[in-house]
UniProtKB/TrEMBL annotation:
InterPro entries, per the entry: Methyltransf_11 (IPR013216), SAM-dependent_MTases_sf (IPR029063)
Signal peptide stretch: none
Any one Pfam family match given in the protein's UniProt record, by short name: Methyltransf_11
Domain Methyltransferase type: 54-148
The name this protein goes by in its record: Methyltransferase type 11 domain-containing protein
GO molecular function: S-adenosylmethionine-dependent methyltransferase activity
Superkingdom of the organism of origin: Bacteria
Length: 290
């Protein structure tokens, strides 16, 4: 593959990825379901006043806005301008000031070692090529700086939702990896490698009480969540497959409700520091944050 063809393929992939997240109404998913995760990530990262922070795949700003409210100087980056537009409005309503930048998580338009902290809240995990995205996270973080992520786990509810949708979804291009892999500890260790130290990972759960039934969950995601909408569009001409996916998602929701009114959505909190100097293929030693 020539460099020109590879670049074109990359643009096409980014365009398709952007279109998925522009579909539906992610604002409702962010505000009604996952808003607490942004605050949890800011707390786990220890972000404080004056620090320069990059939120990668920031979406509508679930982590960016709390980070700015904590006094950090925040750049919120995302591939999807529709989500950034919602985020800008939410930030203005919250009375915080931050920068919003359209950017691909796999090719961030920032210099090496630019940020005191680089974070992502259920965002970078959806970049198609995990190693490329991980390399970018590390590259733009300053030596001794903080990396902090929240990712859905494969075993948790959202990971199981993607597993349920997989047989009905469009076939991904070669090299694309499943997002919930970012919720596996061994996978994260492999992606970050020896370039970080103080790597800590903890599984937690988000309590979701919005849905009384599995069908209510399914219908909410079918109307609002880009990946679910895209999956249904892929099988729209096959009524039997649509019915099968309807039943499978409703059953999944009902199973995680388990007779109660609350679901527990498992996620992985990841924190680390970038090593402070580089020899050979990567950085080796870490200094504490200054």
């Amino acid at each position: 593959m020539t460099a020109e063809v590879a670049t074109t393929a990359g643009r096409d992939s980014a365009g398709k990825h952007r279109a998925v997240w522009a579909t539906g109404d992610y604002r409702r998913v962010a505000s009604d379901l996952v808003a607490p995760l942004g605050h949890a990530l800011v707390q786990a990262s220890g972000i404080g006043p004056g620090e320069r922070v990059l939120d990668v795949a920031a979406g509508t700003g679930n982590a960016s806005i709390p980070a700015a409210a904590a006094g950090a100087r925040v750049v919120a980056s995302d591939l999807t301008p529709e989500l950034l537009k919602v985020g800008r409005a939410a930030a203005a309503e919250s009375g915080v000031d931050l920068e919003w930048t359209e950017a691909d998580a796999e090719a961030l338009p920032f210099d090496d070692n630019s940020f005191d902290a680089v974070v992502s809240c259920i965002g970078v995990m959806f970049a198609p090529h995990h190693q490329r995205a991980a390399d970018e996270l590390v590259r733009v973080c300053r030596p001794g700086g903080t990396l902090a992520l929240i990712n859905w786990t494969p075993e948790g509810f959202v990971g199981q939702m993607f597993a349920t949708m997989k047989p009905f979804a469009p076939t991904p291009p070669p090299g694309v990896q499943p997002p919930p892999l970012w919720g596996k500890e061994d996978h994260v260790r492999h992606l970050l490698g020896e370039r970080v130290t103080d790597l800590a990972m903890q599984r937690r759960a988000l309590n979701v009480d919005l849905f009384a039934t599995g069908e209510a969950f399914r219908d909410f995601f079918k109307s609002n969540y880009g990946p679910t909408i895209t999956t249904y569009r892929n099988i729209a001409a096959d009524h039997d497959r649509v019915a099968a996916l309807d039943a499978a998602l409703a059953e999944l929701g009902q199973r995680f409700l388990a007779g109660s009114s609350t679901m527990r959505w498992e996620y992985l909190v990841i924190t680390a520091r970038k090593r402070s100097c580089a020899t050979g293929d990567g950085p080796q030693l870490l200094s504490s944050r200054g």
